[in-house]
């Protein structure tokens, strides 16, 4: 559908924007036609898809580690021919997925590579494939919510305007995408399944947390990031530090919605058709980034945190981690309970001395898995999820009151109010855990500004 709209716009940059605006208006999510493969849609040839698989396998060996720098055509984006002479109009028309971001690509970009060639997290390395087109991430269109951005696809020395900053900061959820990247999964963590509840991720930096420093994490479907091993069993309500430590493990973790979760389902009527599951993205070396996405991530995070925490006025993030649990249901429910889902997101920012975390609660439809006493249809009752932090080894914990393990957990989506958003909560977590002063007034609602 999109294709028809955009035919022939290649020569008329203004109409590209216009055309895409039309598209956006006409359909909130004009996702790629379901049965059209990514390779088809974006004209990636056979060789490339094979390479994709190979490099994907490589990067999977050490998920989370930066993969070797390569150039690759990827993701939903502008298609700019490096070689105008070889431009095949017919081909373009057929494949026809020409779309341009509002920050339209400078033509000179076609010839220049960004000075700072920085690979993004796993799944975002790039490589040049013959004389194929360069693909530009167009994540800044709302439709592009689904496509992985990458530094190569950006204007050189991108300058972020006030207007643009305001626009990106007006969105509640940080970016997460389920298309593009090495295997067209975007940030989506395909490895996480019922049989494999977590994936290990290495960082090329130090993440100070609760008095310790970690250069890795484990992303769990169960609503937390874990750094050390849990005990064999939990009893409810959960108590941290684990009472029987050191006989039993006392894990170190950041719990945004610590509960037994399983990946849910969405009906075709859901507006946001991004796949249910867990999304993970690391953005490193933000202070030296000149690509659009790097700059926007840095500035968005910087100002959200500076304005969200007292004492963070000079914070300049170096590294960011965005983990999103989209449409996760609870363990123990009947089949239909898979449509009872929660969506929440954790954004970590560190300069390797200070660490801040943002909890964005978009949607909470259930509170408790069945082992914790929740019912099998709605996941309600019993002891609700734990929200908070544990240092590990019996050294300390922080439970987020009054929400954690109480019925008030539902209020997480309406309270918090950090940066003016209902549902946004913020903490400083490098040493002792400190909640944002703007978020620690649970009895108030958000329409008071903060
Ligand atoms: C692709 O899907 C659409 C509906 O989603 C269907 O009408 C069409 O026949 C499908 N085409 C192919 C080639 O499967
Ligand atoms: C676009 O290219 C022109 C000519 O190379 C250059 O002078 C200008 O600074 C570039 N603009 C941006 C935003 O990169
Ligand atoms: C993480 O730190 C340990 C030692 O603290 C080191 O041996 C290891 O190589 C580091 N890993 C990465 C990916 O930097
Ligand atoms: C899936 O999550 C979205 C928010 O990301 C929400 O609007 C939607 O209602 C959820 N769908 C189901 C079936 O729970
Ligand atoms: C906990 O203690 C064990 C054994 O002393 C040690 O190996 C581990 O690194 C410690 N973990 C944390 C998070 O302090």
Automatic annotation (TrEMBL):
Residues 87-98 have a biased composition (Basic and acidic residues). Transmembrane segments: none annotated. Residues 1-31 form the signal peptide. Residues 266-432 form the NIDO domain. GO terms for biological process: cell-matrix adhesion. Residues 57-68 have a biased composition (Polar residues). Residues 49-68, 73-119 are annotated as: Disordered. Keywords: Disulfide bond, Signal. This is Protein mesh-like. It comes from Bombus bifarius.
């Amino acid at each position: 559908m999109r294709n028809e709209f955009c035919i022939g716009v290649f020569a008329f940059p203004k109409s590209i924007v216009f055309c895409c605006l039309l598209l956006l208006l006409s359909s909130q999510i004009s996702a790629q036609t379901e049965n059209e493969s990514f390779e088809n849609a974006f004209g990636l040839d056979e060789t490339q898809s094979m390479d994709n698989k190979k490099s994907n396998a490589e990067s999977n060996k050490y998920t989370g580690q930066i993969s070797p720098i390569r150039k690759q055509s990827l993701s939903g984006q502008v298609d700019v021919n490096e070689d105008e002479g070889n431009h095949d109009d017919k081909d373009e028309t057929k494949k026809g997925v020409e779309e341009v971001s509002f920050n339209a690509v400078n033509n000179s970009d076609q010839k220049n590579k960004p000075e700072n060639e920085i690979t993004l997290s796993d799944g975002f390395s790039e490589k040049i494939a013959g004389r194929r087109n360069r693909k530009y991430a167009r994540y800044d269109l709302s439709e592009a919510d689904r496509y992985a951005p990458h530094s190569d696809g950006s204007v050189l020395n991108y300058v972020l305007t006030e207007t643009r900053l305001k626009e990106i900061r007006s969105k509640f959820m940080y970016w997460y995408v389920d298309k593009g990247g090495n295997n067209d999964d975007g940030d989506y963590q395909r490895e996480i399944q019922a049989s494999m509840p977590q994936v290990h991720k290495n960082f090329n930096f130090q993440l100070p947390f609760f008095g310790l420093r970690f250069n890795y994490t484990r992303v769990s479907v169960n609503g937390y990031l874990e750094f050390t091993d849990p005990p064999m069993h939990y009893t409810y309500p959960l108590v941290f530090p684990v009472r029987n430590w050191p006989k039993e493990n006392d894990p170190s973790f950041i719990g945004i919605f610590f509960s037994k979760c399983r990946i849910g389902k969405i009906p075709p009527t859901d507006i946001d058709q991004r796949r249910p599951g867990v999304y993970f993205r690391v953005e490193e070396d933000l202070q030296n980034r000149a690509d659009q996405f790097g700059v926007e991530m840095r500035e968005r995070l910087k100002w959200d945190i500076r304005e969200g925490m007292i004492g963070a006025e000079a914070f300049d993030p170096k590294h960011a981690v965005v983990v999103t649990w989209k449409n996760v249901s609870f363990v123990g429910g009947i089949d239909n309970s898979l449509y009872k889902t929660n969506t929440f997101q954790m954004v970590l920012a560190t300069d390797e001395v200070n660490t801040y975390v943002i909890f964005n609660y978009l949607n909470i439809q259930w509170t408790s898995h069945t082992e914790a006493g929740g019912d099998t249809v709605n996941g309600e009752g019993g002891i609700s999820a734990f929200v908070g932090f544990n240092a590990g080894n019996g050294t300390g914990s922080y439970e987020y009151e009054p929400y954690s393990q109480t019925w008030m957990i539902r209020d997480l989506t309406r309270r918090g109010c950090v940066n003016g958003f209902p549902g946004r909560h913020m903490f400083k977590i490098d040493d002792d855990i400190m909640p944002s002063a703007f978020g620690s007034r649970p009895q108030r609602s958000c329409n008071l500004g903060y």
